[in-house]
Amino acid sequence: MKFTLGFSPCPNDTFIFDALVNKKIDTEGFDFDVQLEDVQTLNEWALQGKLDFSKISYGVYPLIKEGYHLLQSGGALGKGVGPLLIAKSKPENWQESLTDYNIAIPGENTTAHFLFIQAYPNVVNKKFMIFHEIEEAVLSGKVDAGVIIHENRFTYQQKGLLKLIDLGEYWEQTTGYPIPLGGIVAHQRIEISVQNKVDDLIRKSVEYAFDHYPFISDYVKQHSQEMSEEVMRMHIDLYVNNFSLNLGDDGMKAVECLLNIFKRIEKNNA
Description:
Blueprint: E1 2-7, H1 11-21, E2 31-36, H2 39-48, E3 53-57, H3 61-64, E4 68-70, E5 76-78, E6 84-87, H4 94-97, E7 103-105, H5 111-119, E8 126-128, H6 134-140, E9 145-148, E10 162-166, H7 167-175, E11 179-187, H8 192-212, H9 218-222, H10 229-239, H11 242-245, H12 248-269
Parallel strand pairs: 1-2, 1-3, 7-8, 7-9
Antiparallel strand pairs: 3-11, 4-11, 5-11, 6-9, 6-10
């Protein structure tokens, strides 16, 4: 049986799925047509129902949950792993001035955007960009500030940029839950028994990756050629953890909290 599967080329995703898609584990007759895309593209495809199985931002999950089933394995949740709002300077009154700022956001349907809205619901001057373009946009003055994710968390200070606020930390302080960044979903057209089997295979793929860590496979390296192995490991250490093996009660409560906040935001904007 062959299914479409989408995830990003970022080290945390290739680390998680390497053993599955390259058959380093027994896939028990399952094959996958892999689509490697940035998370905003995957979110848009999820809205279209394009793929059988896909990585998505939890920011888009409220919009697609009627058509997809959330799997327990392969996702990214945790503490201290959220997006950062950064700028070239940090004036004392920056929070009061934020409504006048132009803010770069890594995709409209991303968790980063959701967390920004949660913290600053009145800021409307936003420019949606691919995540790896945001640092340069801030440095060049195309925008006044930007929300950064992924490996940019490890590079912004080297470029002279400053953190205004950790949006993930804001989520943790206001909700008490780990940050739900990205999850794996299965389209409802896939039989439940197959969804459960693929869920189990993803868990085994993560276990395989953990068993061989800190070894970085060629599959991870080939999709992260601009990164040093040190940055790859920092990326993996930050985003791959026990929640990637199983969401568990804490993970599901975090997702439910996100859904409830989304409903409240929608009601306030109605």
